[in-house]
Amino acid sequence: DSGALAIAEHEGKVISTDTDKIFLSVNGDTISIPLVMYQRSNKNTWMHQKPGVQRGRCIKKGQILADGAATVGGELALGKNVVVAYMPWEGYNFEDAVLISERW
């Protein structure tokens, strides 16, 4: 759901992977899947995809080929054991804040 993943549109076999492309063999044809390399997003951040498949692997349609900057194995990976609360600050209903606690 992050929109930063490269997902296989066809079944096939991985011929080779590079930092900016993944080559697949699909029914005898070679398909090149371009990866996003340090591209600016609309939110003034950058997007980058890392290949997540190895050469020689058979893939299925819908399988994840490359991860984004904040994903691992297709799942969002922003941290470990983080306690977060989204709440009004100082009892008012404006200027909402995200509070991150260091305690459990």
Structure overview:
Keywords: Chloroplast, DNA-directed RNA polymerase, Nucleotidyltransferase, Plastid, Transcription, Transferase. It comes from Anagallis sp. SBB-0474. The chain has 104 residues and is mainly β. The chain has one domain (6-78): Beta Barrel (OB fold (Dihydrolipoamide Acetyltransferase, E2P)). It has strands at residues 6-7, 12-17, 21-26, 29-34, 39-40, 46-47, 50-51, 58-59, 64-67, 71-72, 75-76, 83-87, 97-101. The strands form five sheets. It has a four-stranded antiparallel sheet, with no helix packed on it. It is elongated.
CATH architecture: Beta Barrel
- Principal-axis shape equals elongated
The averaged pLDDT comes out at: 82
Spell out the helices and strands N to C. Answer: EEEEEEEEEEEEE
Please, what is the CATH homologous superfamily?
RNA polymerase II/Efflux pump adaptor protein, barrel-sandwich hybrid domain
Q: Which ranges are low-confidence, i.e. pLDDT below 50, for 5 or more consecutive residues?
A: none
CATH topology: OB fold (Dihydrolipoamide Acetyltransferase, E2P)
Q: Which range best describes the helical content: under 10%, 10-25%, 25-40%, 40-55%, 55-70% or over 70%?
A: under 10%
Q: Which strand order do you get reading across the main beta sheet?
A: 4-3-2-8
Question: Beta-strand percentage?
Answer: 35-45%
Structural class by sheet pairing and helices: mainly beta
Number of helices: 0
* CATH C-level: Mainly Beta
The largest β sheet comes out as: 4 strands, antiparallel
In total, how many beta strands? Answer: 13
The N- and C-terminal alpha carbons lie at a distance of 29 Å
How many domains would you count in the coordinates?
1
Output the radius of gyration. 19 Å
